Amino acid sequence: APVMGTDGTNPAPAADPQNPAATASVSAAATDAELKFVILPEGFSHSRRFALSSTVDDVKTQVETDLRIPKGNMKLSFSNVELTAGDVTLAECGIIAGTLNELQLAIVYAEKGATPAATS
Questions:
Q1: Which end of the chain is more exposed for a tag (fewer CB within 10 A), N or C?
Q2: Which residues contact 119 (CB under 8 A, 6 or more apart)?
Q3: C-beta of residue 75 within 8 angstroms of C-beta of residue 106
Q4: Three-class secondary structure assignment of the chain
């Protein structure tokens, strides 16, 4: 039977030392956003949590690590607007904390004979 408080109500749950993320997720919800990347043209998706203070460049660097897609081959868009400025934060892009934000990640391959795009 659950332990009852002295006033007959259930006491507040204690922090779970086995799962610190569960305790931290309450405060993190206000500053973190879940991003779901829909990879085009393949259509599969990849989700990851980022701080709203992360920049577009930070996100591309992490996606490059996660999915092995070179940053120079990524075209990242949110709400049909391409995110081209690498120093802009997710908050400035309109990403909302505590919700699932869907971004489009187009993989751009260089055409034969084309000059490779400059990387920053």
A1: N
A2: 71, 72
A3: yes
A4: CCCCCCCCCCCCCCCCCCCHHHHHHHHHCCCEEEEEEEEECCCCEEEEEEECCCEHHHHHHHHHHHHCCCHHHEEEEECCEECCCCCCECCCCCCCCCCEEEEEEEECCCCCCCCCCCCC
Residue with tokens 């989700």: 47
Q: Does the pTM of the predicted model rise above 0.90? A: no
Amino acid (1-letter code) at residue 82: E
Residue with tokens 């092995």: 68
Token output for 22? 């569960």
Q: What are the residues whose beta carbons fall under 8 Å from the beta carbon of 79, sequence distance 6 or more?
A: 94
Residue 74: closest CA among 34, 35, 114, 109:
109
Digit-coded pLDDT (tens) for 47-106: 999 999 999 999 999 999 999 999 999 999 999 999 999 999 999 999 999 889 999 999
